[in-house]
């Protein structure tokens, strides 16, 4: 059966999942668009509930599972990317507590406090995955991991990463319990160069919001760290700063 109506209840449901964060969280499901992104979700054992496929666009191998075929016009209605590949999947949200993460002796984790922009979070996830970061913690998070823009900008890297959401107090307790070196990025005279930090030990680097940096909660909780720069500005875009830190961690571990 081909779905051709925008008024179809399943199409209405997908549209609402894309646009309404609260509905998505309440439903405990999320939307994945694109062949690579769906392949990664399946590869990392996310539970697929159903797929919407436009045969005129989709050129890949159909995944196992319940498939609804839709017309091009309907697909354009539920697709959130400008260029599309003809497949959208609906998956069950995974909710894993921070306590489930078991760090290695030399684990590096990135912590972002209150990150506000989905695109930034997606870019951060991409850098963390690319450079072998062991986990990403969003402390006091304002952004939904399963926001379509997070999935899109991370190119599906979300699915292969250890990702957790926790309040500041829980995050600090976890770091101290597991003997992490805590590196904060507060702007003051006590900060030392990132390149002097030892990432061959358990390390956690904390970044604040795009607008105002780390909150006062983290003052005095770790060793202040900065990325040395030669230009006239004194700050970087959040996702760029995280990428540089992730690369430095990988470089040290590669020896």
Describe the protein.
The chain has 255 residues and is α/β, with parallel strands linked by helices. The chain folds into two domains: 2-92, Ribosomal protein L30/S12 (60s Ribosomal Protein L30, Chain: A, 2-Layer Sandwich); 98-254, 3-Layer(aba) Sandwich (Alpha/beta knot). It is 31% helix and 21% strand. It contains eight helices and twelve strands. It has helices at 9-19, 21-27, 35-43, 72-78, 118-130, 148-153, 168-177, 238-254; strands spanning 2-3, 29-33, 48-53, 67-70, 87-92, 108-113, 135-139, 163-166, 181-184, 192-193, 203-207, 223-226. α5 runs parallel beside α8. The model has no long low-confidence stretch (mean pLDDT 92).
Shape: elongated
Strand order of the largest sheet: 8-7-6-11-9-12-10
Largest β-sheet summary: 7 strands, parallel
Kindly state the percentage of residues in helix: 25-40%
CATH superfamily of the largest domain: SPOUT methyltransferase, trefoil knot domain
Distance linking N and C termini = 57 Å
> How many E-type strands?
12
GO biological process, one term: methylation
Family: Belongs to the class IV-like SAM-binding methyltransferase superfamily. RNA methyltransferase TrmH family.
GO molecular function, one term: RNA binding
Protein name: RNA methyltransferase
């Amino acid at each position: 059966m081909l779905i051709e109506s925008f008024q179809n209840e399943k199409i209405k449901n997908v549209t609402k999942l894309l646009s309404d964060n609260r509905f998505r969280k309440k439903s405990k499901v999320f939307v994945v668009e694109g062949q690579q992104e769906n392949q990664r979700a399946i590869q990392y054992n996310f539970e697929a509930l159903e797929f919407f496929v436009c045969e005129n666009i989709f050129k890949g191998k159909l995944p196992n599972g319940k498939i609804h075929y839709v017309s091009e016009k309907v697909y354009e209605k539920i697709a959130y990317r400008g260029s599309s590949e003809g497949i959208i999947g609906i998956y069950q949200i995974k909710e894993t507590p921070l306590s489930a993460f078991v760090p290695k002796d030399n684990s590096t984790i990135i912590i972002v406090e209150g990150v506000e922009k989905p695109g930034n979070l997606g870019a951060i996830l991409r850098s963390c995955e690319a450079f072998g970061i062991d986990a990403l913690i969003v402390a006091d998070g304002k952004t939904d991991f399963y926001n379509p823009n997070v999935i899109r900008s991370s190119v599906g890297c979300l699915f292969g990463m250890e990702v957790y959401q926790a309040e500041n107090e829980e995050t600090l307790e976890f770091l101290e319990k597991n003997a992490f070196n805590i590196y904060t990025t507060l702007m003051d005279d006590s900060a030392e160069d990132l390149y002097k930090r030892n990432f061959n030990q358990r390390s956690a680097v904390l970044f604040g919001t795009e607008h105002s940096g780390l909150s006062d909660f983290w003052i005095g909780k770790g060793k202040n760290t900065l990325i040395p720069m030669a230009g006239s500005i004194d700050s970087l875009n959040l996702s760029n700063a995280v990428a540089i830190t992730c690369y430095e961690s990988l470089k040290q571990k590669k020896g």
